[in-house]
Design a protein that fits this description.
With 377 residues, the chain is mostly beta strands. It has 2 helices and 30 strands. The protein has a domain of 109 residues: Methylamine Dehydrogenase, Chain H, CATH 2.130.10.10. It is globular and about 60 Å long.
Length: 377
């Protein structure tokens, strides 16, 4: 017995000695270089990967809850925000919803703020937003729709604003826009204290029963781009306190046999549809539009991954090229970096592809990243 006790003590001491040599590593926190506009966060599973798309490498990983569908960067303040639902028994039990706060420099959680347990676990960028540079807004669905506001100046829950019949939050001026089931876009102005000041809606521009629109929108310089299931693109913006929606641009008009301004006659391709989790991207300065496309199906395939990316020159309205993915590879999302000479990012089942958006040339693939949702810095 004494021999066994002495052996156990020696084992414990040796483990302690082994652990001691790692103290300076285990106890350290690596710092992440300051991200720029060509960094992107890719959410996959219970993690978010911070990717430098110029270098094609992962610079950090954020630990999320399995019910954290997306995140938003507030890079000017050195923070990243996400939200999640946590259950006392992992997937069931008492639920607690929180806004998660991460430090960009260390990619580490530094705080959380409890919010009403109503957050929607829907994965795209319109589910969480920075509003007025003062609030994190989280979209709720219970099934009633609302927005929870967390004051990032005090790290405290501020208010809940009803969003009946509408979805998502897209920051603009002193508030945010949402897309509504009655065929309109709604703008809600938010005060410095997080209270609703006013709300106004656009004229109806789509019919939910005929051609619904995605509740995912892509940013433009003065508003937000909205796409319908049948491929009609419009911009919503504010003009003197009113919400204005432009006329539509059809990404796939019926083939009429007429040549475009370059003398090129399009091949019949009317069997193609837009789809994916983030199905299109828009860049104002570069006048670019990219869409994730798949062949066959009806409106019910609005989330189906694509096998091609179509790129458009929005100065002329012409499609510039069709980028065919490799055999067996499918795309769920496309995005442009927001700089003057952007990169085109495509999330596929094989990894994160980086392309020149003007020529379509493949630059690199970050194969270590799997996920379906993009968020820019």
């Amino acid at each position: 017995m004494l021999q066994r006790t002495l052996w156990s003590l020696a084992l414990l001491l040796s483990c302690g000695a082994v652990n001691a040599q790692w103290d300076t590593i285990v106890g350290d926190v690596r710092t992440v270089e300051e991200p720029d506009v060509r960094w992107v966060a890719v959410r996959g599973g219970s993690s978010a990967y911070l990717v430098d798309t110029d270098e094609g490498v992962v610079k950090g990983t954020l630990p999320l809850s399995r019910f954290s569908p997306t995140l938003v960067s507030h890079a000017s303040e050195g923070r990243i925000y996400s939200y999640g639902s946590f259950y006392t028994r992992d997937t069931y039990g008492e639920r607690t919803d929180v806004v998660l706060i991460f430090d960009i420099e260390t990619a580490s959680p530094i705080g959380e703020v409890e919010i009403p347990a109503r957050a929607a676990g829907i994965g795209h960028a319109g589910m969480i937003s920075i509003i007025n540079d003062s609030f994190v807004g989280v979209f709720n669905l219970t099934p009633a729709q609302s927005v929870s506001l967390v004051d990032i100046r005090t790290n405290a829950f501020a208010n809940e604003i009803s969003l009946a019949g509408c979805s998502s939050m897209y920051p603009i001026e002193a508030g945010f826009m949402s897309i509504c089931g009655d065929g309109t876009v709604q703008y809600i102005e938010v005060s410095n204290a997080g209270q609703e000041v006013s709300r106004v809606r656009s004229e109806p521009f789509f019919d939910l029963a005929v051609d619904p629109v995605y509740d995912y929108a892509s940013p433009a310089s003065d508003g937000w781009m909205i796409m319908s299931f049948d491929g009609y693109l419009r911009k919503a913006y504010l003009d003197g306190g009113e919400v204005v929606v432009t006329e539509s641009f059809n990404i796939n008009p019926e083939n009429d046999g007429e040549a475009d301004i370059n003398g090129v006659v399009r091949e019949p391709d009317d069997n193609w549809r837009i789809g994916g989790r983030q199905p299109f991207a828009y860049h104002d300065e570069a006048a670019l539009l990219a869409t994730v496309m798949h062949q066959g199906g009806g409106q019910e395939t609005f989330e189906k991954a694509g096998t091609e990316i179509w790129a458009f020159n929005m100065k002329t309205g012409n499609r510039g090229y069709r980028l065919k993915l490799d055999e067996g590879e499918t795309a769920s999302a496309v995005m442009f970096t927001p700089d003057a000479e952007p990169l085109m990012l495509i999330q596929t089942n094989e990894g994160l592809r980086v392309h020149d958006p003007v020529t379509g040339r493949h630059l690199r693939t970050v194969s270590s990243v799997s996920g379906s949702i993009f968020n820019l810095f």
